[in-house]
């Protein structure tokens, strides 16, 4: 048996520490049941509201149900969606190996301004 075999566990104890910690009160199960039922009821109401608004829109377009979009905002969102689709198509054609080599080439092209020069003797 080595010197390191015995390891006492637990927190360190300070001399003269006579205070005992107060125990937390446990909540009764009836209070928890009330809270759980109110949470479940709120979730049901939210689900009903979401399903009602989704069926009311009909077309299911990506337009927000809030304020009306201006022409510029609508066009901006269309361009962003088109760019996301193009990026997804481009990435779908590349294998993981191709993506890694592209990433490494990109890192090679970057300037290494984050590298610290050697300072001091050594």
TrEMBL record:
Protein name: DUF1754-domain-containing protein
Domain of life according to the entry: Eukaryota
GO cellular component: nucleolus
Annotated Basic and acidic residues bias: 28-48, 70-100
Region annotated Disordered, chain positions: 1-100
Biased composition (Low complexity): 49-67
InterPro entries assigned to the protein according to its UniProt record, in alphabetical order: FAM32A
A UniProt-annotated Pfam family: FAM32A
